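Problem 12. The chain below contains 432 residues. Write out its predicted structure in token notation.
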Amino acid sequence: MTVDRTTESRAVAPARVRPLRVATASFIGTAIEWYDYFIYGLAAAIVFGPLFFPSVSPAAGTLASFATYSVGFLARPVGGIVMGHFGDRVGRKSMLVISLLTMGLATVGIGLLPTYATIGVWAPVLLVVLRFVQGIGVGGEWGGAVLMAVEHAPERRKAFYGSFPQMGVPGGLILANLVFLALTASLSDEAFLSWGWRVPFLASAVMVIAGLVIRLTVSESPDFERVKREKAELRMPFVTVLREHWREVGLSAGAFIGINALGYVFMAYLLAYSTSVLELSRDLILTFTLVASVVWLAVIPWAAALTDRHGRRPVLLTGSIGLVGCAALLFPVVDTAEPVLVLAALLVTALFMGVVYGPIAELFSGLFKAEVRYSGASLGYQLGSILGGGIAPTVATGLYTQWSSSTPITLYLVGVTLVSLVSVLLVTRRLR
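Solution.
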């Protein structure tokens, strides 16, 4: 079942809709939450192995740290289901405040966590628990932020305004990389391993407070206000989604698997692979990732604006085909260990990631009616996240550990991006 939101939008008084302000607030809050999430991935690639899993080999330590990284993805559907339920019944705005608080408290907790040398096995156990709580927070974040932006937007600009919270992902990655670059440049390896790695986690407290102030100033979604006014809330929106919209959930999850898997290999695993296997400079790869993330961020609103003008199908299909090519070529190019080629590979990957990621928020929200939109969009997105980025760094690490070659990683990435290409073909056909 697909949804025409024109009638919903006409029911909203235009004077009450301030799409740019809401979209900007969504971008800022989302960037803060994803900063929290990404500093974990960077720390997993750099320090969590020796600090929390010191009794195993370096390769096994990296694998173990990325396994804890994946735990956060297992929690994301829990956050999506719980906050999606209350977001469809109580409101989008309140869930965004709760998700930001949840993420911030867990992130600061990681920054205060004793290591294995201090409390033994409880250190990795508590790390896993806090990572799970992070996953719950970010699991409820995406659906609310996207819907606030899309549901406040005028009908012909929904993809563009929906891209603002999407920009929060590379925005958070850029911020995380800048913080890590500043610390690694100013501290010795010993100081960074001893205490410096904690600074990005503890600094989250200040940013979360700023994000809460911003989020509390925006108005509730007009589409949700219409639902409340018409007393159309459902008792169990999640059950309705599973019963009536399971095809949309499956297709949206499939459409997201490829970009999410490639994206998390790009954002997290390549740092560990480039430094430990290819022996490239850590600061060099962090800088390259930072530059590529700027390209990713810039392409997102451009691709979304093209979607508003030309439609979802041509933009998403172009981006999805490009991602298959990137999946096939990324590691063969990176394996040359030539800095110029490595940077080129990351830039091209970032370009096509932006083409897909920009319009996908509006695509997901367009699949579900307002009464179940938070639950449906969140569930599809988070299932795609688990099957994509949730396991990608762990799978990539395991494949290289087993085969001592990046070729199996390439085959894996090509496979998941092909799944997404087929899903995009099917889902855009349903929405025409």
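Discussion. The radius of gyration is 21 Å. Students who got a different answer should revisit the alignment rule from Section 12.3.
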